[in-house]
């Protein structure tokens, strides 16, 4: 390491168990990667189960995919990638030791993440009105259009318009397959666990902002921001797999 | 006692600062970040949980004295064996060696001041304790009756006991395991003292490393499986529910993907303890250091691929049964490598039969029996005959109790002088080890026989011809209880009245013994530099200085 990196005031001393800050940084980075390995297996079991059932009930799962608003999921993918960009900028700000930069970009990340969660909540609401929520109101017969409410009905009209414009498969009409409930259950469990990870991430970002406001981070010491960045990108990547698996596998 | 010399007091002045006298308040213990104190917190917690599970075992054994069952109702019996299994697995066996000896020893063995993440370490103890309180709440509210395996759809849709709270407790407990494993992995990778290369690591660290990988990679699968189970139970619709097109066998796959590797979480640390004690007591280098080190990793890797052997009878295809059977045989190879290595280490060694070594000798014999009967059970045809009988029960108790618990007790005896600075009574130690060995065999060997004859496990009542085996087994369990209770008494007694052990009563070459006993909070005055391989009983001490002068 070149000498100019070491400033006179190091606001955060090296923890007593480490020899120096490089060891500390390497340890915390490896710790986060190890945790992410845990997370991969955590989501992995879900993906395996989902794939298994998808293989077993291809038609019901395809019908289920057709019920989802793929364009909302698509917009959310873009939103989430934007949040990852903001996060990368925050990590960059951390690496040059700018606490104000960290605060600015973390607030941006939180804002973009909130947009994602808002769109996700809208989707949940639409699915609720369309009586697609297992254990709450899942019904084999889709509700008639006049019961849907203005928002959900307009999304339904947009869906049909889009399908004709794109010459896509006709949208499902008539009774749903019983196994579609299984698809919807996976959809809700997987997206809800993903959203839980994002909410935990937002809470951690608030702590990081609080730390940055107190000037905790510097060029030498910013592992928390960097390691959190790894976590946030991981949560992104999970969505990058969730989105095609749930929304896009819709054509035979 | 004759082989352990008296060490004059001036070697160990009483005013010396140790981790034990660094603070005397309850706060100084409950908010400690010292890995050694956290190890002791764990030791207290798991000992209490062991007692809870042991009481449940006593209820099982008392019930089975009579063919008609002595407990008032079968439902009580079902709750007793379920609680016994759950508490023993997740609140004693899984955390036993890693969280106590692992916590205490890994930093000392690698010449570090602490684990990489001391706060996380304390947090995992708190998670563990919270989960223990949760499972005790389950017990107080009336227990759970699904068996420790929670097979669906009984556990999700039919059981009327506290499945959800139990599952939540195991979920919390799992995160405690994950954080412990994560901490160990990072510590072993990044905190080794200068000169301590991978192949100079004590074999205990290799075993703990393999264990930690299982902690980190298997536990999350159980966590998500239990989440799905809880979703199914709470919402009454679910992912494993055949009515919806779900598959109960999928639950078994996911469950055993964790729960088979978890038996290696339980036994690998004992392998580590055995490697330490046997080399020390034989006063030789281990026979095949690298073979022992890599066999730990091989067991870990193959152990991830054998879960299907729990499901030969569950309707998996014969082809996958064949593959799982072959892989299960394969895992016996690295295990045998270890047993042979230890045996050859003892060969022509000057073996000191102190208490820890007695436990290790017992462990080697019992584990070999348990392991070989495991190979029998991995055989497709035999397994169909012996599936869900007492043969299986005897097999895994030989491995878990004869293996893991013996390893834990041996390790506690071996490192007790380092942990407390006191020596226990060697005489009573040997007596307890002997009683435990006899009691264990009397408890579980009859179970092999009755299992082979067809006695199913988990049955409340049974045909009278099995009574003689059950009575023998219960008698053995009573003796075993004495063998487990005695160490509690004389070890606690030694805390107050025991002789000062001195820094290195076993004249070990390992790094952890090159510090005073009990060690100072910082473990080492300055970071040690390692210049020689481990277990160099023919060379000098690892720090370059002559081996501590303790003559025999």
In brief:
The complex is a heterodimer of chains A (252) and B (552). Chain A is mainly α and 252 residues long.
Describe the structure in your own words.
The complex is a heterodimer of chains A (252) and B (552). In chain A, 71% of the residues lie in helices and 0% in strands. Chain A is mainly α. Chain B has 552 residues and is an all-alpha fold. A two-stranded antiparallel ribbon of chain B has the order 1-2. In chain B, helix 2 packs antiparallel against helix 3. Chain B is globular and about 65 Å long. The model of chain B is unreliable at 544-552 (pLDDT under 50). Classes of the chains: A mainly alpha (252), B mainly alpha (552). Chain A binds chain B through residues 15-19, 23, 26-28, 30-31, 34-35, 37-39, 41-46, 49, 52-53, 56-57, 60, 134-135, 178-179, 181-182, 185-186, 189, 193, and chain B through 107, 112-118, 120, 178, 182-183, 185-187, 189-191, 216-221, 223-225, 227-228, 231, 235-239, 244-247, 250, 254, 257, 522, 527.
Q: What would you call the quaternary organization?
A: heterodimer
Strand content of chain B: under 5%
Spatial order of strands in the largest sheet of chain B: 1-2
Computed over alpha carbons, the radius of gyration of chain A is 22 Å
Poorly predicted tracts of residues of chain B: 544-552
Strand percentage of chain A: under 5%
C-alpha termini separation of chain B: 11 Å
Secondary structure elements and pairings:
The complex is a heterodimer of chains A (252) and B (552).
Chain A: H1 21-56, H2 58-67, H3 70-95, H4 99-129, H5 150-165, H6 180-213, H7 223-248
Chain B: H1 26-30, H2 35-63, H3 74-93, H4 96-109, H5 118-141, H6 154-158, H7 163-190, H8 203-235, H9 248-259, H10 261-282, H11 289-303, H12 318-346, H13 355-378, H14 380-386, H15 390-420, E1 422-423, H16 426-452, H17 467-497, E2 499-500
Helix pairs in contact in B: 2-3, 2-4, 2-5, 2-17, 4-7, 4-8, 4-15, 5-7, 7-8, 8-9, 8-10, 8-11, 10-11, 10-12, 10-13, 10-15, 11-12, 12-13, 13-15, 13-16, 15-16, 16-17
């Amino acid at each position: 390491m070149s000498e100019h990196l070491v400033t006179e005031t190091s606001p955060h001393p090296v923890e007593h168990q480490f020899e120096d800050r490089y060891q500390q940084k390497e340890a915390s980075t490896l710790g986060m990667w190890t945790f992410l390995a845990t997370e991969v297996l955590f989501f992995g079991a879900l993906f395996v189960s989902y794939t298994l059932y998808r293989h077993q009930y291809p038609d019901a799962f395809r019908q289920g995919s057709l019920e989802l608003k793929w364009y909302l999921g698509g917009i959310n993918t873009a939103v989430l990638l934007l949040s990852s960009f903001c996060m990368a900028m925050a990590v960059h700000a951390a690496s040059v030791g700018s606490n104000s930069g960290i605060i600015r970009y973390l607030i941006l990340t939180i804002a973009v993440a909130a947009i994602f969660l808002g769109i996700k909540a809208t989707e949940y609401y639409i699915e609720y009105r369309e009586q697609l929520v297992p254990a709450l109101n899942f019904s084999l017969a889709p509700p008639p259009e006049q019961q849907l409410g203005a928002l959900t009905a307009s999304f339904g009209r947009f869906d049909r318009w889009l399908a004709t414009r794109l010459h896509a498969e006709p949208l499902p009409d008539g009774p749903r397959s019983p196994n579609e409930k299984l698809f919807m259950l996976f959809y809700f469990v997987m997206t809800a666990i993903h959203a839980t990870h994002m909410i935990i991430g937002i809470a951690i970002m608030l702590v990081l902002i609080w730390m940055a406001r107190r000037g905790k981070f510097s060029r030498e010491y910013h592992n928390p921001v960097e390691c959190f960045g790894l976590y946030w990108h991981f949560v992104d990547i999970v969505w990058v797999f969730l989105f095609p698996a749930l929304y896009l596998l819709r054509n035979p | 006692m004759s082989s352990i010399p008296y060490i004059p007091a001036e070697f160990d002045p009483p005013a010396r600062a140790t981790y034990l006298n660094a603070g005397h308040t309850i706060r100084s213990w409950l908010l400690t970040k010292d890995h050694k104190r956290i190890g002791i917190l764990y030791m207290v917690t798991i000992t209490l949980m062991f007692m809870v599970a042991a009481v449940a075992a006593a209820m099982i054994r008392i019930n089975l004295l009579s063919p008609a069952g002595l407990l008032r109702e079968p439902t009580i019996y079902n709750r007793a064996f379920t609680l016994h299994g759950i508490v023993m697995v997740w609140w004693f066996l899984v955390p036993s060696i890693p969280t106590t000896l692992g916590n205490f020893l890994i930093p000392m063995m690698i010449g570090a001041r602490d684990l990489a993440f001391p706060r996380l370490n304390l947090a995992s103890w708190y998670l563990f304790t919270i989960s223990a309180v949760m499972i005790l709440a389950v017990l107080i509210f009336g227990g759970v009756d699904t068996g420790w395996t929670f097979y669906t759809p009984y556990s999700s849709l039919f059981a009327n006991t506290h499945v959800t709270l139990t599952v939540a407790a195991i979920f919390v407990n799992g995160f405690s395991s994950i954080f412990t494993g994560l901490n160990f992995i990072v510590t072993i990778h990044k905190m080794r003292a200068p000169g301590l290369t991978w192949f100079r690591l004590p074999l205990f660290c290799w075993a703990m490393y393999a264990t930690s990988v299982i902690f980190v990679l298997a536990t999350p699968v159980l966590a998500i499986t239990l989440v799905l189970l809880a979703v199914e139970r709470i919402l009454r619709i679910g992912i494993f529910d055949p009515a919806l097109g779900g598959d109960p066998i999928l639950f078994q796959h996911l469950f055993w993907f964790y729960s088979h590797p978890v038996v290696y979480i339980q036994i690998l640390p004992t392998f580590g303890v055995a490697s330490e004690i046997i080399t020390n007591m034989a006063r030789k280098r281990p026979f095949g250091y690298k073979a022992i080190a890599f066999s730990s990793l091989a067991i870990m890797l193959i152990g991830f691929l054998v879960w299907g052997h729990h499901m030969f009878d569950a309707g998996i295809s014969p082809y996958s049964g064949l593959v799982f059977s072959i892989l299960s045989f394969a895992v016996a190879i690295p295990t045998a490598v270890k047993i042979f290595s230890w045996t050859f280490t003892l060969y022509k060694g000057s073996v000191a039969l102190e208490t820890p070594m007695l436990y290790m000798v017992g462990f080697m014999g019992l584990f070999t029996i348990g392991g070989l009967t495991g190979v029998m059970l991995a055989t497709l045809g035999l397994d169909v005959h012996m599936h869900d009988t007492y043969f299986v029960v005897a097999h895994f108790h030989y491995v878990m109790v004869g293996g893991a618990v013996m390893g834990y007790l041996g390790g506690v005896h071996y490192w007790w002088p380092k942990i407390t600075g006191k020596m226990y009574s060697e005489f009573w130690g040997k007596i307890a080890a002997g009683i435990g060995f006899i009691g264990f065999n009397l408890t579980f060997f009859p179970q092999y026989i009755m299992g082979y004859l067809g006695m199913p496990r988990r049955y409340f009542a049974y045909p009278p011809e099995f009574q003689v085996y059950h009575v023998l087994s219960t008698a053995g369990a009573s003796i075993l209880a004495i063998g487990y209770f005695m160490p509690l008494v004389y070890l606690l007694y030694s805390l107050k009245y025991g002789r000062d052990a001195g820094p290195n009563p076993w004249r070990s070459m390992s790094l952890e013994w090159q510090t005073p006993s009990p060690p100072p909070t910082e473990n080492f005055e300055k970071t040690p530099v390692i210049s020689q391989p481990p277990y160099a009983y023919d060379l000098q001490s690892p720090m370059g200085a002559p081996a501590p002068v303790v003559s025999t």
